[in-house]
TrEMBL record:
PANTHER family referenced in this protein's UniProt entry, alphabetically: P-LOOP CONTAINING NUCLEOSIDE TRIPHOSPHATE HYDROLASE, PARA FAMILY PROTEIN CT_582
Residues that span the membrane, as ranges: none
AAA domain residues: 3-178
InterPro entries: AAA_dom, DNA_Partitioning_ATPase, P-loop_NTPase
Name of protein: AAA family ATPase
UniProt superkingdom: Bacteria
CDD domains found in the cross-reference section: ParAB_family
Organism: Neobacillus pocheonensis
């Protein structure tokens, strides 16, 4: 049975999509079968993995809103062992269209249950909000991985996120765990980064991954080529650290 991990933080630009794509690809690289689920209407994970959004006929919208089977929407990617459940801008309507529907919070969970045993890991790239799409992701997941950018106000907003996690645990998914907190975009040349690491470790303690993702320009270039870092530049620091993260995720069980 696959493990489902939501990559969530309602702040934009903290590295959710970069982590979803590259953790997913690195897990695939070390031999795991991985499904990357894009539930952000921006569809950055979809294009980042090389799927042309204009050519996507059915996407996660059809699964969530029209009860389409996940199996018929999942696509292979150019990366061995890595599959994708794509998102297009059509998904932007789902947040509102789902509101009056029955069991609106558990739609993704039900859809993924049908395919869960086909994969070792299912990684869900969440949108930058705590709306119904993120609630669907948290409800469908075994755990949540929280990327935190090494910046001023790193912890800002995290209490809201943790509060949402607690509400989901209470009402929708008792089994939901915190998978880990990932420090991203560290600029090792500044003291600020070090301060943020200490602050986040004080707050989350052993939940913080040993692997810290530095700023690496290759990581920001890869998406425009539609490939994960491990395929774009396997010798870059970015590839190394996401491979370390994948191993850490596996060893944490
Ligand atoms: P989110 O999904 O949380 O909005 P992204 O993963 O899209 O965040 O990252 C925001 C921007 O920062 C993107 O342009 C991405 O390419 C870039 N980026 C993410 N992580 C790194 C990193 N470690 N080093 C350099 N650029 C990064
Ligand atoms: Mg994103």
């Amino acid at each position: 049975m696959g493990k489902v991990i939501a990559i969530a933080n309602q702040k934009g630009g903290v590295g959710k999509t970069t982590t979803s794509v590259n953790l997913g690809a690195c897990l695939a690289y070390i031999g795991k079968k991985v499904l990357l689920v894009d539930i952000d209407p921006q569809g950055n994970a979809t294009s980042g993995i090389g799927i042309e959004k204009a050519e996507v006929e059915q996407c996660i919208y059809d699964v969530l809103v029209d009860d389409e089977a996940a199996k018929s929407v999942i696509k292979p990617t150019s990366v061995e062992n890595l599959y994708a459940l794509p998102a297009t801008i059509q998904l932007a309507g789902a947040e509102i269209e789902l509101v009056p529907t029955i069991s609106r919070e558990v739609r993704l969970k039900r859809a993924l249950e049908e395919v869960k045993d086909l994969y070792d890991y299912i990684i869900i790239d969440c949108p930058p909000s705590l709306g119904l799409l993120t609630i669907n992701a948290l409800t469908a997941s075994d755990s949540v991985l929280i990327p935190v950018q090494c910046e001023y106000y790193a912890l800002e907003g995290l209490s809201q996120l943790l509060n949402t996690v607690r509400l989901v645990q209470k009402h929708l998914n008792q089994e939901l765990k915190i998978e880990g907190v990932l420090l991203t975009m560290l600029d090792a040349r500044t003291n600020l980064g070090i301060q943020v690491i200490e602050e986040v470790k004080k707050y989350f303690q052993d939940k913080v991954y040993k692997t810290i993702i530095p700023r690496n320009v290759r990581l920001s270039e890869a998406p425009s080529h539609g490939v994960p870092i491990i395929n774009y530049d396997s010798r870059s620091r970015g590839a190394e650290v996401y491979l370390d993260l994948a191993k850490e995720v596996v060893s944490n069980g």
